[in-house]
Design brief:
single chain; 508 residues; alpha/beta; N-(1-d-carboxylethyl)-l-norvaline Dehydrogenase, domain 2; eight-stranded mixed sheet; disordered N terminus; binds 6-phosphogluconic acid; oxidoreductase
């Protein structure tokens, strides 16, 4: 039992003698992520104060993992705040939602103007918008920070995406950039993201992209397994090979390892896992936000729906007995097809990131945030789940041109997607013929073809809308005349006048 625990049992309030404010920052929430961030901070030379609602966890932590390190504990919010140097820097790593608000309320009576509350959970960005404003009115700086990289990342270097009240940044920059992961060029994977909930917004998009990357990988695995009839051990080696090329990334690497992992009977464990995907909601938030902002972030949307489709397994079992389709049969050069598959994955990934950055760009406009795009790509280069070599190229693209309209217009990515096209088209067409679902590969290609098409069939759609609902349409400038003036909302009585539509037009 720790000295503190003994003291408490003896009725001595270990928190009462006005504690010396020795800690550089404090962290509330001692689940594994929280503990690991504290240990990481201590390793970097900071003194950290730990607090948890169930205070026995504080004692256990101090007596074990934290022993001998520059870590102090507190057994009440009051004691915790008293142990922090000013301005107080407090990070919450508690469940998103009400627990964050509850802790903020509990902290407020013990804080002073200029103190900083950081929420490091997976909070929804509108909550962080609200908290930034509400706390600013009380003179407290709120920071909503994306934290990515799981338990391992928290311990040895996560990707950190802080946003909120910028007044806080000079006070937390050193701590954040010290504990964050470093890119292979030694740059910290952490920078100021932007105002209000921008940090949590960027983390949300990160998670959406994570969903997309994972779905693309799963589709590639399925295509190799069912389309090419490859055993899992062979597929693992393809991923191992891909991890040495343009797809080199954490998610490809762990896929290789997962596929190599055999159960005690010597067969791949992955084949025994129930094919029903879970989700906690951050991918769904990204998809909903893209609909709200009118941005075609189709790949993340498909990735979320693919998880939903996987989850309705009983329906799929029934449908598998009732709904027919082709049986995949591959003929030809397998190695060449695997090369095409690599290109298809690469091209689809480029589309997914281009869509993600389109959403970020639109959010900056819509919410009036100043966002630093080169830094966002840099923050994702190391420490986080989507870390990859590829993000170095994205960082370079936005460093070369911070106002780049679309990632696909950057010289490097423009060339890359052109080079990948033949293989990509081959894969998407083959899997359609084989009856293997590849929603992420397919939507990426459809988006690419739609985005590069000057005239889409939305002219017909507008006519339909006007026909049944008088929703009006606009005329193409080259066809404008007195009856159909340019830039005006026009309605036609489509049934009333036979071919003579011009007589029945009006300008709304
Ligand atoms: C990260 C992860 C992390 C978490 C996902 C899982 O960046 O470290 O994204 O935040 O693992 O939210 O999300 P799902 O449970 O929805 O797959």
């Amino acid at each position: 039992m720790s000295n503190q625990a003994v003291a408490r049992l003896a009725g001595i309030n270990v928190g009462s003698p006005a504690p010396h404010p020795s800690a550089d920052f404090g962290l509330i929430g001692l689940a594994v992520m929280g503990q690991n961030l504290i240990l990481n901070g201590a390793d970097k030379g900071f003194t950290v104060c730990a607090y948890n609602r169930t205070t026995s966890k504080v004692d256990r932590f101090l007596d074990n993992e934290a022993k001998g390190k520059s870590i102090v504990g507190a057994h009440s919010v009051e004691e915790f705040c008293a142990k922090l140097k000013k301005p107080r820097r407090i990070m919450l790593l508690v469940m998103a939602g009400k627990p964050v608000d509850d802790f903020i309320d509990a902290l407020l009576p013990h804080l002073e103007k200029g103190d900083i509350i950081i929420d490091g959970g997976n909070s929804h960005f509108p909550d962080s918008n609200r908290r930034t404003k509400a706390l600013a009115e009380k003179g407290i700086s709120f920071v909503g920070s994306g934290v990515s990289g799981g338990e391992e990342g928290a311990r040895y270097g996560p990707s950190l995406m802080p946003g909120g009240n910028e007044a806080a940044w000079p006070h937390i920059k050193d701590i954040f950039q010290s504990i964050a992961a470093k890119s292979d060029d030694g740059e910290p994977c952490c920078d100021w993201v932007g105002d209000e909930g921008a940090g949590h917004f960027i983390k949300m998009v990160h998670n959406g992209i994570e969903y997309g990357d994972m779905q693309l990988i799963c589709e590639a695995y399925d295509i190799m397994k069912r389309g090419l009839g490859m055993p899992v051990s062979e597929i693992a080696e393809v991923f191992a090979q891909w991890n040495n090329g343009v797809l080199d990334s954490f998610l490809i690497e762990i896929t290789r390892d997962v596929l190599r992992y055999n159960d005690d009977d010597g067969t791949p464990l992955v084949e025994k896992i129930l094919d029903q995907a879970g989700q906690k909601g951050t991918g769904k938030w990204t998809a909903i936000n893209s609909l709200d902002l009118g941005m075609p972030v189709t790949l993340i949307g498909e990735a979320v729906f693919a998880r939903c489709l996987s989850a309705i397994k009983p329906d799929r079992i029934r449908a598998s007995k009732l709904l027919g389709g082709p049986t995949p049969k591959f003929t030809g050069d397998k190695q060449a097809f695997i090369k095409d598959l690599e290109q298809a994955l690469y091209a689809s990934k480029i589309i997914s990131y281009a869509q993600g950055f389109m959403l970020i760009q639109e959010a900056a406009k819509e919410y009036g945030w100043k966002l630093n795009k080169p830094s966002i790509a840099l923050m994702w280069r190391g420490g986080c789940i989507i870390r990859s070599v590829f993000l170095k190229d994205i960082t370079n693209a936005y460093r070369t041109n911070p106002n780049l309209e679309n990632l696909l217009f950057d010289g490097f990515f423009n060339k890359a997607i052109h080079n990948a096209q033949d293989g990509w088209r081959n894969v998407v067409s083959k899997v359609a013929l084989w009856g293997i679902p590849a929603p992420a590969f397919s939507t990426a290609l459809s988006f690419y073809d739609g985005y590069r098409t000057e005239s889409l069939p939305a002219n017909l759609l507008q006519a339909q809308r006007d026909y049944f609902g008088a929703h009006t349409f606009r005329i193409k400038p080259e066809y404008a005349n007195n009856n159909f003036p340019e830039g005006k909302d026009i309605h036609v009585n489509w049934t009333g006048r036979g071919g003579n539509v011009s007589a029945s037009t009006y300008i709304a």
